[in-house]
Design goal:
Blueprint (H helix, E strand, L loop, with lengths): L3 H12 L4 H10 L4 H12 L6 H25 L7 E6 L3 E2 L4 E9 L6 E11 L4 E12 L2 E9 L7 E11 L2 E11 L31 E6 L2 E6 L19 H4 L6 H12 L3 H9 L4 H15 L11 H13 L12 H23 L1
Length: about 350
Amino acid sequence: MVDSTLKNYIKNTLKQGYKIDAIRTRLKQSGYSSSEINQAVKQAKGRKIISTKTLLIAAILIIFLIILVIISLKLIVPTPKQISISTTPLVSTVTPGGKLVFVTTLTSPINRKITATLKHRLINKKTNKIITTQTETIPIGTKSSTQTQIIIPENSATGECEVITDLTSENNQKQTRFTFIIQQTSYPTTPLYEQPTTQTLLCPQGCDDYNACTKDECINGICKHTPITPCCGNRICEQGEDIYNCAIDCKKEIETNTETITKAVKKAKTDPETASMLCNSLPSVDDANECFEILAKESGKNQFCESIQDTELESNCLLNFALKGDYSVCDKINDPYYIQSCYSLQRQSEMQSLAIQFS
């Protein structure tokens, strides 16, 4: 057991400022053993008690450090770069019941594998009332484009209108808009009782349907196509025809349009000339147009679009290449609306490239 007198002596001496080593030396000189001195020193010093104030200050410092770490992490981790959106109208005026056609382009500074929701609202600017709405989804990569067609209701009021497109996707909410005009169809002012002249009875576009098995005539301004029978090439094996003088009609297995188009697609990349001949062998111009449209899409060669014998279909086929970034087709388009849209897409792409370059 430690001598209480010895313990009190050590406490008082420490309070007076003496070092523990000096106290030990003096006690040894007075005859105390090292064991007695160590026990007395241990009890004299006792356990240090941390004050409540010290604990509170330590807790505040820890919380402050945690807040600093959180703020630092937010500053270090960059905010995801936003997706840009733009809409380009392909027509500027539409009649009630007609189609409004426009292209929506999404551009991302990084490649993303997510889907965006696009909500289009058509609003009459004078009344500020919604004419109609349409919602669609589009996958986002580095650059994505989609062509949208919206039917204008028959009872729509005429005047200046606006399309507001809202983009909603992961961490992104954007809006873009453009204006267009709804106008009534203009009708001819010629009185009903006036007899049309010879010139108005002509068919200015011609009546050739590119089908050798029809007789093409323009009668009173209307094209008439009368079947010619028998006719080799109409896919019907008729009287007087056989496998020797008309194999295309009379062979046992007549190739369907789908089979011909499938064969043309296989030839398109390696032998474009043969692929074109297969499309032209189809029974009607509409079938041939469909064939060339499929060839262009499947092969990625825009020259097949130029074989389409319908201006609007040809222009739409070429514009699909512009939507994918091939603006060399702009000079090949014949429809004025599609030409304007093609060059608008090209300018928009160049401006976005500059924006990304200097951002």
